């Protein structure tokens, strides 16, 4: 039986790259999405066309019920989860602290942080039940360390919360054979930057990166799959930058 990989928010960008690489490495893959059904189904066709076992599941994992729905459908379609990648996230849009409001904070923390708690809860129930352990990878951000762009304190704060969760859960779950790690991408070429200027923004930041260039979604996916696999069997409670030195 193949191992099962669940990637939240994986219809596009970094999540899609993780799903694609996971399938190539032999995982049965659950592609989770909230609204972009067309992109999710296109990704499923791509993976299936390469011989992968894959299913797309619509579920809003920012809610407890949505996370329960996701994992119930994964159980039925693929079997118990072996690896979870908590990738679902939004930027929340720019807002100076003097204008931050309850709705914006609730939405970004529910999407970026609550979802990771809900999905980790469901994954651990299953990993513990099989007795085979498992791996959880939280996709954080280098913004957790350096604060990110101006007027995005709410975004940086959610990613810092993910890093704290990673370390705490590693202590809680280590004896169960469940590894928990966090990966902090820096400037990565995805459409998430489009709302802030897209390619022009990335070009303006690139000179500040010691490697002189932004990263790619595929480079992040390689790191995520390494953390999810037995190749990193003694890496636990780690928070790892993938930021080109920035």
Gross morphology is globular
Distance between the termini: 41 Å
User: What share of the residues lie within helices?
Assistant: 40-55%
The CATH architecture: 3-Layer(aba) Sandwich
Order of helices and strands: EHEHEHEHEHHEHHE
What does this molecule look like?
- The protein has helices at residues 13-24, 37-49, 64-77, 102-130, 143-146, 153-173, 199-205, 217-228, and strands at 4-7, 28-33, 54-58, 83-86, 134-139, 178-185, 239-242.
- By secondary structure, the protein is α/β, with parallel strands linked by helices.
- It has a single domain (4-242), classed as Rossmann fold.
- Strands 3-2-1-4-5-6-7 form a seven-stranded parallel sheet, sandwiched between helices.
- The chain is globular.
- The mean pLDDT is 95.
Concise summary:
This protein is α/β, with parallel strands linked by helices. Helices cover 46% and strands 15% of the residues.
Features:
single chain; about 250 residues; alpha/beta; Rossmann fold; 7-stranded parallel β-sheet
Summarize the helices and strands and which ones pair or pack.
Blueprint: E1 4-7, H1 13-24, E2 28-33, H2 37-49, E3 54-58, H3 64-77, E4 83-86, H4 102-130, E5 134-139, H5 143-146, H6 153-173, E6 178-185, H7 199-205, H8 217-228, E7 239-242
Parallel strand pairs: 1-2, 1-4, 2-3, 4-5, 5-6, 6-7
């Amino acid at each position: 039986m193949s191992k099962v990989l669940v990637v939240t928010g994986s219809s596009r960008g970094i999540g899609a790259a993780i799903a694609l690489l996971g399938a190539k490495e032999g995982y049965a893959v659950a592609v989770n999405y909230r609204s972009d059904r067309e992109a999710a189904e296109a990704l499923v066709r791509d993976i299936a066309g390469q011989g992968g076992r894959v299913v797309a599941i619509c579920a809003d994992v920012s809610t407890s019920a949505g996370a329960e729905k996701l994992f119930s459908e994964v159980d039925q379609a693929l079997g118990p989860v072996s690896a979870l990648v908590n990738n679902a996230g939004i930027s929340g849009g720019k807002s100076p602290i003097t204008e931050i409001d309850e709705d914006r904070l609730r939405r970004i923390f529910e999407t970026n942080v609550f979802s990771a708690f809900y999905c980790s809860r469901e994954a651990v129930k299953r990993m513990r039940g099989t007795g085979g352990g498992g791996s959880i990878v939280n996709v954080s951000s280098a913004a957790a360390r350096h604060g990110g762009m101006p007027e995005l304190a709410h975004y940086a704060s959610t990613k810092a919360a993910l890093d704290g969760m990673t370390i705490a859960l590693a202590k809680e779950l280590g004896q169960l054979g469940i590894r928990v790690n966090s990966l902090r991408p820096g400037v990565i070429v995805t459409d998430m930057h489009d709302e802030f200027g897209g390619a022009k923004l990335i070009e303006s930041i690139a000179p500040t990166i010691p490697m002189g260039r932004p990263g790619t979604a595929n480079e992040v996916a390689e790191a995520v799959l390494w953390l999810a696999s037995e190749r990193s069997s003694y890496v636990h409670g780690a928070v790892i930058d993938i930021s080109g030195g920035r």
